[in-house]
Amino acid sequence: MHSIEYESYYRKSSDPARRQKIDVHATPEEIAQLVDQGYLIRERMFEGASLDRLRVALDRLEEEETRNRPPGKGGRSWGFIPRHLMDKDPAFLELLSFQPVLSIAKALMGPLVRLRGLSARISQPGEVVHEVPWHQHLRTVSKPLPPWFSRPHALDALIYLDALDDDTGPVCIVPGSHNWLDRDPAPEVYEPIEGELEVRAPAGTVVMIHSNLWHRALPTVNKKRRMLILGYTPTWLRRSPHGGEPPEDGLTRAVRDGEDEEGRILLGIGGYS
Q1: What ranges in the chain are assigned the alpha helix state H?
Q2: Would you call 269 exposed, middle or buried from its count of C-beta atoms within 10 A (0-12, 13-18, 19+)?
Q3: Of 170, 177, 159, 171, nearest to 213 (Cα)?
Q4: Domains (ranges, CATH) in the chain?
Q5: 113-to-215, 251, 256 alpha-carbon distances in Å
């Protein structure tokens, strides 16, 4: 762990909140690895009661939202992807300012970051093969690069509530691929590519990646796999359009309407001109 002190120039000089000290839950060397290679793995970041709490909340949500969902028939699927989780259960809302991830996001992007989203992906064995092709999460790049192009950055924490192994399907990443600005993954490609790294890890592991790191998920063949995706961007980046609008009466409303300034900034209210 190390500390960074920021001074935010969007504030008035007399504002006492202008200066912020961030206790970063990573070493400078780990931050350098994330910048260069695009990933950082934290095994067993969630254990015991904290892991069980997230599992129970996600299982309850899955049961509610798939009750009348017809089963798939053959082919491939990404699985079940519920979104806006922080609006749906207090266990998820507690992750809004989860410092082991948020502090790293601030070390990478500065003190003014907002929640990109909290969603999940649930895959399980069955007639439909749950597998994910090569993809990125925040692809917005022009070729050639314009002179004033502002490259989008985001940190996504893939929180695995189940072990990553051959039964549940490891995740594959390509270190350094977030810096490939002249290409993107071809659609529906599931085959290995040169330089990929297969990640196997125990339950509770968090794989932090740059949103544009190339990655895929191998098939879930014998055991269910539950994963949360917690993401942060700079405050001025627009909210992700995926998953539609959050529930009007969701749990984040109290934070948006409250007086916790950091919570409001994390939900996209303020922190930019």
Answers
A1: 28-37, 48-65, 90-93, 99-109, 252-256, 261-266
A2: middle
A3: 177
A4: 37-65+74-139+153-266 (2.60.120.620)
A5: 24, 20, 15
Residue 126 CA to residue 29 CA, distance in Å, equals: 42
d(CA 78, CA 129): 8
Who contacts 173 (Cβ-Cβ below 8 Å, separation ≥6)? Answer: 38, 39, 196, 197, 199, 207, 209, 213, 214, 215
Burial 229-250 (b: 16+ CB within 10 A, else e): bbbbbbbebeebeeeeebeeeb
Which residue's structure tokens are 């910048």?
35
In tens, the pLDDT along 196-238 reads 999 999 999 999 999 999 999 999 999 999 999 999 999 988 8
pLDDT tens for 21-79 read 999 999 999 999 999 999 999 999 999 999 999 999 999 999 999 987 776 667 889 99
Angle at 168 between CA 102 and CA 40, to 5 degrees: 30
SS3 236: coil
In a 10 Å sphere around its CB, with 0-12 CB exposed, 13-18 middle and 19+ buried, how is residue 54 labelled?
A: buried
CA angle centred on 38, ends 37 and 40, rounded to 5°: 95
Question: C-alpha distances in angstroms, 28 versus 3, 23, 95, 99?
Answer: 9, 12, 24, 16
Contacts 24+ apart (CB under 8 A), 164-168: 164/199, 164/200, 164/201, 164/205, 164/225, 165/200, 166/200, 166/221, 167/220, 167/221, 167/222, 167/223, 168/123, 168/220, 168/222, 168/223, 168/224, 168/225
> CA–CA separation, 171 vs 198, rounded Å?
6
The pTM for the full model equals 0.94
